[in-house]
Structures are given as C-alpha cells and as structure tokens.
Fold this protein.
Amino acid sequence: MLPVKPTDARWTNEQWEAIYLRDQNIIVSAGAGSGKTAVLTERVFQRIKEGINVNELLVVTFTKAAALEMKERIRMRIIKAVNDGDESLFSQLNLLETAQISTFDSFSMAILKKYGHLMNISNDIQIGDSVAFEQLKEELLDEFINEKHKDADPAFIDFVQRYTMRNGAPLRSMIFELTENLLQRPDFKAIVKSDLEAFHSPAFYDQLIQSLLTTVKTKLTHMHEICDIMIHQFNTPEVIDHVIAMQQSIPDLSRSYAYDDLRAMLFTHKFPKTYKTMFGIEEDADDDEGPEEQPEFNEYEVFDSYKKTLKSIIDDCKKLMYLSHDDQIQLMQSNYPYEKTLLSLTGEFIERFFTRQIQTQYFDYQSVAYLSLQLILNFPEVQNALRHMYQEILVDEYQDTSPLQDALIEGIANENLFIVGDIKQSIYRFRGADPTIFQNKYDIYRQQPNSTVIHLNANFRSRSEVIDDINHVFGMIFDDTFGGVNYRENHAMQFGLENYQNEEVFNQNYGMTFLKFPFSVHEMMHSEDASKNKKREVASFESQLIIKDIMEKKNAYQIYDKETQTLRPARYDDFIILVDRKTYFDEFRDAFQSYGIPLHIHKNDAFLSNNDVLVTVNLFKLLLALSDPQLCQTHFKHAFLSLAYSYLFEFTTDEIIDFYTKIDPFEPKPIFDLSIDTPFEGFFKVFKELLDRQEYMRLQDILSHFNQSFKLIENALKLEKIAAIEERLIHIFNQLKNFDKMRYTLQDLIHYYSYAVAHHDPNNWFFDIDIDFVQGTAVAKDKVNIMTIHKSKGLEFPVVYYPNNFAGWIRTQEGVRYSDQNGLLLKSYHDGFMETIAQRLENISDFRASLSERLRLMYVAFTRAREAMVIPYSWTEKMIPSTHQYDVESEKVFDAMRVEYSSNRDIIQSFIDQLKYKVKEVNIGDYLFKRRVNKPKRSEILNQEFSGDLRNYQVLPPPSLEIAYEVSSESPFVHPRHIKNMQLGTDIHELLKNLDFQASIPAQLKALKVDKKYQALIMGFFDQSIMDKVDSARVLKEIPFAYTHDGTRVRGIIDLILEYPDKVIIIDYKTQNLESERYENQVMRYVQYIHQKTQKPVSGYLYSLVDQKVKTIVESYQ
C-alpha cells in the first residue's frame, strides 16, 4: 500500500508513487528535466531502508558514467542517513562496492563469467574492440567463401552466378550486412534455421499486394489533402480552378481498384499544364532577379513547390507499382531459393564466428550478451538463481534498449521490474535501440493487472516560457505516427521549478526566439566560390548571428543560478550550441576566433587521427621494419620520416635528409651501422636494444620501453591537452595487455592498426570503423560550448542555440536484412536487380521510424534549455508557407506535410507562423560576411604517403594550437566595429599562408581569383624592404615551438620565418594595432628561441596587414 505523502515532502504525487509503489511491474514515463535520476536513487535508498541489501538490487544504466554517478548518489544518500543517526545502514556501504549497478555490457559479462563454464567458457574471458572483431570477421569470411567455392555446392554456385563475381565482393557485403542485422536479435539461431516458407505462400503474397495497395492509397490521400490545402490558400479563381483540375486527375479514392487497374491509371497520369500567366507573370520573365528583389512569398514559386511535391508522390507510387501484379508475384517466387541460400550461408558464418570466440575466449560485447541470454534460457538453474538473486530490477533509459537487452531483462524478471524511460528521447536507432520496445511495454502495462504506468511530466529544469513553447511546438508535430507519442494526451510538460517565478527580469527574453533570414544570404557573401559552398557560407553567417546574440547577452542577460538561487550575469559557459552533425564545426571555430570569443568544440576525433597515437603506432611500425630486411624495404621510409619530423624529436631537416639519403641498401644492419656517430645514434640504439630482446618481450613491455626512452608523456606537453593524451596512451597500453594474452605478434599488431586506418571513414558514420575509445563530456568553463545533440543528452544549459537547420537529412540505404513482418529482404532480378514488394514496404516503414527519430532529436535539443533557446532559421521563397501546412481544426501540422519533412528547417517552417511573436527578422546589413579559406584536414596530412622532396615530408608535422579545437580565452575582446578590419586581416593572413613566396605572386593571385583589394594588400606586403631578398630565403610558415626560458615553459606559433645563410628574419602578422607591449614581448620570445636554435643573428618585426606598416622590435639579435 502506498504510504501517505507528508505535506512537507519535496516530491510530486507522481514522484512519490514512483518511489514507494511496490509488488508490481512499474513503467515510469519520465519527461525531460523531471528528476528521474533523483527518483531512481531515492527508490533504491528506500528499498535498502526496508531491509533489502543493496547487492540484492539490479540497477542497469546505459553508460559507465551514468552507472558511476548512480552509485555515487546512492553512496551519498546512505552516508547522509548514517550521519543522521541510522547506523544500521553502515554495512550497506561495503555491499555497495560489489552491488550490480552497472551497464548492460557489464551485467552480461558478470553472468557469463559466473555461469559460462556450463557452455565451456572460461571465467577469464577477454573483451576485444570493434576493429579486432571486424578484422576477425573479414578473415573468417574470406576462409568461408573460399571453402564454399572449393565445395562447389550447386545452390552456392547458383547464388554466386546470380548476384556476384568470382572475387566475392558483393557476396561478402551481403553476408556481412545480414550478420550484423541478425546478431542484434535474441532469436537469430531460430531465424537462420527457418526455411522462410511462411513468407512465400500465396496467402502472404496476397497480403503483401494488399499492403502495397494500402500504402499507395495513403500516398494518394496525401495528394488529395495537399490539393485541399491549395484550394483554401490560393485566392485567384483561375489558380483555384487549376488546382481543382489537378485534384480531379488524381485517382478517386472512393472507388475500389484492382492492382493492375490502379497501376495503369498511375502510369498514364498527367497533371494539367501550369502557366505563369495565371499568377500575373509573363512566360518569358527572368526567374533570377537576385535575392534582394525577391519577396518572401512568391505565389508562383510556392505553387510550383506544391506541384513538385505532388509529382514526387506520383513518382513514388509508380516505383511501388513498377511491375504488374503477376510480375510482382513471379519476382518474389524467383527470389525464394536465393533467400534460403543466403540465410543458410549467413547462419554457417555466424556459427564459425561464435566458435572462434569460444576457442580463443576473446569476445565482443554483443556476443557476451547473446551467450548470457542463452545461459538464462537454456539452463533453468541459471535463470532461477538470477531471479531469486535480485529483489527488484531497475532499468534506466529503457527507450534505448535493443531487442537482445530487452530479452535479457525479461529472462530474469519476476514481476519485479521498475523501468524508467522517455520515448520522446529515443535517439539511438543507429546503435540498435528499438523505441517500440518501451512503447509496447507502456501499452501492455496500462492494460495488464498488477502493472502500473506513471507519468513524470513536471519539469524542474526550465522556465515556464521554455516549457510552454516546447509544448506548443511538439503538440503540433508529435503524435502516434510521427514521433511515436500522443504528446498532448500524456506527454506535455508541466512547470515544476517555482523558484524561477521569484527570480526573473522584466522584459528579458525567455523561451524561444527564431532569428529569421533568407537562405539566399550566401549569394551576398564575399566568397568567390559561394555558389559551390552555399551551406558553408550560410553556416558561417549563422555563427555570426549567434556571436552577436552572445555578445549582447554576455554580462547583460541575467541567469538564474540554481546553486545560489539568485540571478547573476551570463558567463560564456552559460551558452551551448547544439547541432545534429559535426559538418560545420570549422565555420564556428573560425568565426569565434575572429571575434575573440572563447569556444570549446566537443569533437572527439577518431582515435587514430590523434598525433600522439600516430607517433606511438609509427614507433611499432619502425620496430617491425627494422626486424626484417624485406619489411624494411616497404615500411621504413614512412615510419622513420614520420617520427623524425614529429614533435617527439628535435632533429633538423638537414640532419634528416643527410641521414636518409645516405641509406643504401634499405636494410636493418646498414641503417644501424650508418647511425653511429650521427644525431640518430641514440634513436636507433633504442630499437636495436628492443630487437635484441624482442623474443622475450611482451607488446606492453615494448611500449613501456618506448615511453622510458623517448619520454612519450613529457614530450606530449608540446601538443597540449596532456590529460587526454595520457588517457589515450593508457588505453593503448591496456589494449596491448589484451593482445599479449591473445599472443599477438608485432606483425599482428601492425596488421591491426593498418586495418583500422584503412577502414576508417569519418565522412561515413554508418560504415566507419574506429578503435573503441570514449572520452567524457566535461563542459568547458568560461567558454561557449558546441557539441552534437547526441552528446548533450542528459545535460542542461541556460541558453541553447540550435543552428544549421537548413542541412538536409542523410538517408542511409538499408542493405540485406531480416524483418519479422516481411522475411529476408534481398533484391530480386527482373531486367536488372530491383527491390521486391517486401523490401519497398520495409523501406517505407524504416523511413517513418527515421523521421520519428529526427523529431525526437529536435525534442532532445529543445529540452536542454533552462532559460532561452535561440534558433537561426533561413527561409526560401519556394518554401510552402507555414499557414498552408497547419490544420486549424486539429491544431496539428497536416500529415501530408509532415511525411515530406527532409530537414529540420522543414519542421520549423511547418509551424513557424503559429509562433510569429517569437520570430525576429534579421537585418542582414548588420553582419560582415567572411570569406572561408579551405584548408586540408589534419587527418589528410597525417596519413598520406609522401614522395619527392624530403624537406616537405610532414606526415607528423609539429602541431599548431588548432589541434586543441579551442580559441584561447586570452584573446582580446573585439568590438563589432573592429570586426571588419579584423576579418580582412584574417583573410590576408590565410592567403599569405597558402602562397608560394618564391613563385610569381601576381600570377598566383590571378589564378586564385583574389579580390583586387586583397591583391593590393598582398602586394603591399611584398613591397616592404624586409621582403627584398625573399627569393633566396628558406621560407617557413606557422611554425609552432615550445621551450623553457628562465624556468618557464614558453609556447607559441611564429607566423613567418625567413632563413638566410647569414641571418634570420621573423615577422609576426597583426591586423592593425602594433603598439602593444604584449606583442613586443611575444616577438622577443620568438627571436630568442630561433637564435638559440640557429645561432644566427635574428631580426624581429611586427607587420600590420591592414595599414601595411612595419614595426622593428629588434635588429640583429645575437
């Protein structure tokens, strides 16, 4: 029975129920900011107080960080109770250390280690990372396909002849895709043993045909709905009559059509021709009048957008009904034997994969979860033990569970489940999460006796204005079909933090603000290639909108501080920029740097793209090269030059070239002999020592030796972010410990790293492979933060910016897969390969699921905001006006409009007129448009193989401060009136970095199509007397350095060094102001450092890029 809530309790009625309700399954639908973690913690604590030991509770979360946080919260709650006099709970602190408060992966691992002996699995199993297992799968698959070719099984040969060539590439990808799909399912073994007969009966074929007809009719319904909207929105009688004629050309849905009859109507369908004269436009009028002359609402352009949408829907229907009824049936029938063959092959391959893991006792987490489930389902003693071990099972974030994880929990549940989740925040389908699992449980628990659904809708994070705006928006776009919830019925948030009402500023903007501007702003930018980089230019403009807003709010906007419960001026770390992709991070970095605003970009680069990691890998590669004459021929050059030019060593370019050009032949012994009495003697001595003892050394010992000999950690100080570097080195060391247990050789290790590099594609997240390594999301203090929405999950910020909404969504093409509804989805053959009905229907279902997740992703972004949310929003004249998309009667966006969403901007456009009072028109003239200079990505420089001039070999160049992805907080604050000159200076600086000083400057400027104003400033620089003899100088640009001066570590980047036989000139670029003691001291440090390195007289100058003035800091420092 639920205890009576005291009048002074801090919990809401719903929270109280979630904490104290007992003896039944409970599902808690917990909205954003509802205090679900506090409720979960308190429930655990109250169960302990009732006499249940903490290690008799199973608490499962989705990340290690969340598990640690939960355990710490419970610890502090127990400590407080003990300090308050309840000493009976003291023993729980010891039990807490071994309590199962963990992730799904850790819990599965614990089951397998404890009971794995029943399946001949050791309790000393090891976990491998994704690269090792992708490598293993590839090797196993090569063996498997080769064996099948030798066996010459008729079904296999027939499949190969139909789908692939002798090299097996398409067959490999098919088996890989189906393997990945099946391994996410708890019942995959039953699937691979099935004959698929249920999906190839006449009754099932008829069912598919009927489903296809229903889908087509739904699309036609949307067409009629769009025509109805057009009739009500356009005012000209001639246009309305034309729309009516268009609608009459669409098949009448009040009639019943046979498949082939409807198909014939679609393939003969034509809309009546539209004439511009209907809209008062002459037919020969020029469409391109320039962005400034275009009205926001162009009736003809909007009509044309409607018509294109209608034509697109007709085209979709034609694709669905491309074949006749009989041809569709024949297509599916002909595919049946090939589906069975592929399923059988995949089943055999998966069996080999599991067998290899059991043989090596080396598993991936997915296999661990599956094997743990098999122990529960196939060994009653295991299931009974686990069911009696835990008095209650509490699972957080259940909306992100996979079918395998759900089966694991259900296998040990005993009407003692406490599930917390929020389907509105389910955003991990790409990781295998299935939000329908939570929704199905929600529906069942609402009907099932001895089960309860509790809604936590009170939001204790945000101001009422934020909550009202979010409720308004998602009430218009969320429902059971789109987003997966009836938002208004059970999911609308309620204002919870009443303290906000006592601390607010009159006339301060709270809630949402939309900064509206035309997308055609890109045509006004100063970039020569603006037409090619429209989206990057618009992203750059949006970054400036945000910067201006931050500059206006900084110190002026009052933030409610939850800790002090008072108002205070806004700081930089009160602002967060959330994006759905990392594509435009560079635009933000450049803009914030220009304005002198500190920015921290939460961008976890690929593990193998970090300089410190590449250095470590190349140490092992060089060791391998020096171990064998043949390997030396192929591996030595890249490994040696990468290391020699890296931050780890201080060899000069001349020393490197002199040594390298004398190597002959490229074999270990001549190289070792050559190094004697050279600057490289100590370097190669380390490798010689390791090779002499390699037979007795483990990989982890080799890394330790490298660390001691080359001071990997100490030298990493040059790269900054030392904590992250040390963390990565420890990760590599732990990897090597695992590889040592697996008896990896040095060659195995290099093969592993080479595979990871070859298969890493940062532009393709779906197929990208990277070494498993996750760093936390610590919000940078005193800096504006920018991160992806996924990374922001669970965080909150006073002011949230949500830009880049113009970017279209990427739709990944689903490959071969299995569906409970439609069987094995494999293309069939009919005058070329094409999708079957089952595939087309499944693709439509996948699209709806993906669209729903996109809506939920926006919900997650919006609900991070505590005080305000600012949303840059670009419109085009071709967009259908918001008033056309909104159904006044239902107060929702029309289904026909929502199903056509293809970007976040489409979503915003569909409801924006309902929030007109929140829209702020941007005056474009207030902003400076910045030319973006394209630079090669660091990863492209690091991983390429170089040839030719050894002086240009920069596989691992000395890093610049750009590596940290941070703008220094020491940057002087720049007033907006100075931004134009600052930007001009930045652009000139970028051009100087990219020009060849010893080639014709005018010719280069002409080839680059540089603006005349820029050309004049560039030529003004080369006309200075300090540049008179640049043709005879060695030119070095953007040179980072780090050295110790009088006990202080000094770092910097020197803009330009001109080295002559008898002297060196240093030039530091500035925008305008040269009268700064700080600048003078900076140049003096540069001069001292270069003199120390070269022992030549050094002159130092400051140069104003805008005023074209030179200031002498020191003449001939000696």
Summary: The chain has 42 helices and 30 strands. Residues 194 and 340 are 9 Å apart (CA to CA). The first helix runs from residue 13 to 20.
